[in-house]
Design brief:
Layout lengths: L1 H22 L2 H26 L3 E6 L4 E5 L17 E3 L5 E4 L3 E4 L11 E6 L5 E6 L6 E3 L1
Antiparallel strand pairs: 1-2, 1-5, 2-3, 4-6, 6-7, 7-8
């Protein structure tokens, strides 16, 4: 009987801990959003090379919106492969920050800025996921 009580007590403690971890989805949302941003930037870069033209990326940290467009005013959004436009909205609880509100990729895939571009998705618990675009190569990496 004592062993059964101890097993039930241990199982209760473990389940209480697991439920607490499962309810904290902010870090998962921020990580997933950073992965989506990196994929969107890679797609915009590849589209710029394929179309041999400038493609613009607008990052609005205030609204949490990332758009890829054919013009700098973003009146002509880049078409997504499955239809619609290339546009991302930050999930609830994720804060978006950047050091470049707008930049472009040229026909060679190089970004328009001479410095490194960083876009960060921060979870509600403070965990930061960063997407970086290298200045000369346009290489997009997530860290």
């Amino acid at each position: 009987m004592l062993e059964l009580v101890i097993v039930i007590l241990i199982a209760g403690i473990l389940s209480f801990t697991a439920i607490g971890r499962l309810n904290n989805t902010g870090e998962v949302n921020a990580h997933g959003f950073a992965e989506q941003i990196a994929s969107t930037l890679r797609f915009a870069q590849e589209a710029a090379v394929a179309q041999r033209r400038l493609l613009y990326v607008n990052v609005n940290a205030g609204t949490g919106l990332v758009n890829a467009c054919l013009d700098n005013a973003c009146t002509q959004p880049l078409a997504a492969p499955g239809g619609g436009s290339v546009s991302l909205q930050a999930p609830g609880g994720v804060v978006l920050t950047t050091n470049a509100a707008q930049f472009s990729f040229d026909g060679l895939g190089q970004p328009s800025t001479s410095s490194q571009i960083q876009i960060q998705a921060t979870a509600s618990d403070g965990q930061v996921f960063t997407v970086t675009v290298e200045p000369t190569s346009g290489y997009v990496r997530r860290s």
